[in-house]
C-alpha cells in the first residue's frame, strides 16, 4: 500500500569478503537519497552461514560464488569477476615474478581459505592432493590472512581486490596463471515474500544489471 516515494524498511544482505558486494552497493547507491528511510543490514559470513540464514528467513539476499543451488534459490549474476592469486611478503623470491604458476606452490608454506570446497578447487589447480600440500594456516577473513603473511606463517591464496597490497610496504599480490576466475550471484530463497524495500532494491539491481 506504500507509494514508491514513501518506501521504508530494512534490507538484510549476507556476503563474504568480495568485490561483488561493493559492486552491488555502488549500483544501488542511487536509492539512498530517494528513499532515506531504507536501512541496510550487512552480515559477513561464509557460504554455509549465509545459506543457513537465507533458509531461516533472516536474510533477504546473499552474495555467493557460483555454482548456485537452483532448487532452493533464485539468483541474478553480478557483472563482476574476481581472480585467485598469491599474497606474499614483498621480499619473497616469488615477488619478482609477474604471475604465479602451480609448480611455484608445490613446496611453499601456504595459507588457505578454510572453506573445504575452495581448498579442493585450489588443490586441483595446483595439481596436487590437498593433504600433500604444505598448509601452515587457514583463514576466513582476508585481513587475517594478510596478518599471517606479514608474520611469516606462509603465503596466502587469496582473491584479488580484497587487500590493498599496492599500498602495503610488507606484502604484494601476484595473480595465478592459468587464471582462476570466480563469478558471483545475488541469491534469494525461492518464493520468498519481499518487503517493499527489498523488492525495490532487487528491481533496481535488475534494471541496472540488464543494461551492463
Question: SSE layout and pairings?
Answer:
Blueprint: E1 9-15, H1 19-27, H2 31-34, E2 38-44, H3 47-55, E3 61-65, E4 73-89, E5 110-113, H4 116-126, E6 135-139, H5 142-150, E7 155-159, E8 171-175, E9 181-189, H6 196-209
Parallel strand pairs: 1-2, 1-3, 5-6, 5-7
Antiparallel strand pairs: 3-9, 4-7, 4-8, 4-9
Folded structure, characterized:
This protein has 212 residues and is an alpha/beta fold. It is built from six helices and nine strands. The protein is 26% helix and 30% strand. Helix 4 links the parallel strand 5 (110-113) and strand 6 (135-139). The longest helix has 14 residues, at 196-209. The relative contact order is 0.23.
Element order: H for helix, E for strand? EHHEHEEEHEHEEEH
Tell me the number of helical segments per DSSP (H or I, 4 or more residues long).
Answer: 6
Class derived from helix and strand content: alpha/beta
Average pLDDT metric: 92
State the oligomer: single chain
Q: Could you tell me the radius of gyration in angstroms? A: 19 Å
Silhouette: elongated
Biggest sheet features = 9 strands, mixed
Assign a percent range to the helix content.
25-40%
Short characterization:
The protein has helices at residues 19-27, 31-34, 47-55, 116-126, 142-150, 196-209; strands at 9-15, 38-44, 61-65, 73-89, 110-113, 135-139, 155-159, 171-175, 181-189. With 212 residues, it is an alpha/beta fold. Strands 1, 2, 3, 4, 5, 6, 7, 8 and 9 form a 9-stranded mixed beta sheet that branches.
